[in-house]
Write a structure and sequence with these properties.
InterPro entries: Homeodomain-like_sf, HTH_RpiR, RpiR-like, RpiR-like_SIS, SIS_dom, SIS_dom_sf, WH-like_DNA-bd_sf. This is MurR/RpiR family transcriptional regulator. It comes from Marilutibacter alkalisoli. Keywords: DNA-binding, Transcription, Transcription regulation. By secondary structure, this protein is of the alpha/beta class. About 60% of the residues lie in helices and about 10% in strands. The chain contains 13 helices and five strands. The protein has a five-stranded parallel beta sheet with strand order 2-1-3-4-5, with helices on both faces. Helix 7 crosses helix 12 and helix 8 packs parallel to helix 12.
């Protein structure tokens, strides 16, 4: 794994000092060959030992190994960069922006995939497939992904209970049991309403799956399994787009894995589509 990619993926879990080091490395990767650990520490106003510990926490023997690994990664990326074809001047800015956005989404997806081990994804798939009912809740923007997941699980024959209203979900959770699963969407995992619903579901002895950013938050802490998303961009209007793209790709993967779990799901999906099509085109 590229050290820069690993730094981005682990950034949300870092301490304040570690995030300062991480941000400097990400922003100045091409200049690191001119920085010793002492010079980097001085530039950030921290101790040299903090730089060394940061490097070791990422799995390197020390800062020189981390710096060398970053240099190698940059060299590989530079060698593999395709030459941009000639373009018309009037459309080039749009194409460049589209390609830049696509690359940012791909990077967020890769980071998200790396922080969700195969075992963790498989456990979530098994929980969904083995559930008697799947309760799904998300507020605001998170509710869009919650509704989409609920719809697709229903189409393949999995019983779902989905609400964007926390009061309605709290009422529905009163009927939950040990064989039920709650999937709760919350980017930052701090909404009091969703934490209350999770506690209520825990009292009913159901299993809880949280869907949040890769950060420490109350919702993730209370869950039996966590689906994590890593997406970062200094542009505040772009970062949510990367988060949504990375999350949707991970949900798509889970849906495909769920669909492969049983041939009955595929048959039910075809039947569901036929019924829906009859309504749309009688």
């Amino acid at each position: 794994m590229s050290p820069l990619l690993k730094i981005r993926a682990e950034r949300d879990q870092m301490s304040a000092i570690e995030r300062r080091i991480a941000d400097f490395l990400l922003d100045n990767a091409h200049l690191l060959r001119d920085y010793s650990s002492q010079q980097l520490a001085s530039a950030l106003g921290i101790s040299q030992s903090s730089v060394v510990k940061f490097s070791q926490k990422l799995g390197f023997k020390g800062y020189p190994d981390l710096k060398f690994s970053i240099g190698e990664a940059l060299a590989r990326e530079g060698a593999g960069e395709p030459q941009a074809p000639d373009r018309e001047p009037d459309v080039e800015p749009h194409l460049a922006l589209a390609e830049s956005l696509w690359c940012a989404k791909a990077q967020a997806e890769q980071e998200t995939r790396l922080i969700n081990p195969v075992e963790q994804v498989d456990a979530i798939v098994q929980a969904i497939c083995g559930a008697e009912r799947v309760f799904i809740c998300g507020l605001g923007q998170d509710g869009i992904h919650a509704r989409g997941l609920g719809l697709r699980l229903s189409l393949i024959g999995i019983a779902t209970v989905e609400h964007a209203d926390p009061v309605l979900m709290a009422a529905s959770v009163c009927s939950a049991g040990p064989r039920d699963v709650l999937i709760v969407f919350s980017e930052h995992g701090k909404q009091p309403e969703l934490c209350h619903i999770s506690r209520q579901f825990r009292e009913r002895r159901g299993r809880i799956i949280s869907v949040t950013r890769h950060s420490a938050n109350p919702l993730r802490a209370s869950a039996d399994a966590a689906l994590l998303v890593s997406a970062h961009d200094e542009r505040t209007h772009v970062e949510p787009l990367l988060y949504q793209a990375a999350l949707q790709h991970m949900l798509d993967l889970i849906l495909v894995l769920v669909g492969q779990h049983s041939s009955e799901y595929a048959a039910h999906y075809r039947s569901s589509l036929e019924h829906i099509q009859q309504m749309l085109d009688p």
